[in-house]
Amino acid sequence: MSEENEEKEKMSESMKLAIAVVGAILIGFLMVGLNKQQSNDQKESSAMVRNYFNLQTMATEACPKAILEATGEQVYFPSETESDKENFITLKWVGEKSQKGGFKKASCTVRSVMGGISELMIDDKAVISRKPK
Fold it and tell me: How many CA atoms lie within 13 Å of 103's alpha carbon, on the beta-carbon side?
């Protein structure tokens, strides 16, 4: 009978160990699941960051192409940036007026409601001027 008791004790110890491992895994999944839930403030903050990133990406892709088409001069990094981080971004470049084209200053505004360049000014002349409807 002592052999049967030893087997039962071993079985119960291994069963306890298995239950403990399964319990630890379940607690881990529960903790990860609870940490992934975001508050409304966190969701709003994330949405604002994504919106600003998209606005900035749109501007840095569209504005240099438009300036190149209008002046024949390639621009890379803006010298100044203005934005309300929600509705618009304005990128400004300082260039050099040359005999074969170029410009002294250029500014390009992208508005989120318009989905593209709303205003492109080169040397104080409007090349593109679209007003929101």
Answer: 24
Per-residue tokens: 90: 């304005």
- pTM for the whole thing? 0.66
Task: Judge contact between 104 and 123, C-beta under 8 A.
Answer: yes
Bridge partners (DSSP) of residue 128 are 120
d(CA 80, CA 94): 9
Whether pLDDT at 2 is above 60: no
Contact of 80 with 92, CB cutoff 8 Å: yes
Q: Token pair 């604002």 is at which residue? A: 48
Q: Tens of pLDDT along 59-109?
A: 999 999 999 998 888 898 999 999 998 889 999 999 876 666 678 899 999
Q: In which region does residue 76 sit, left (phi positive, over 0), alpha (psi from -120 to 50) or beta (all else)?
A: alpha
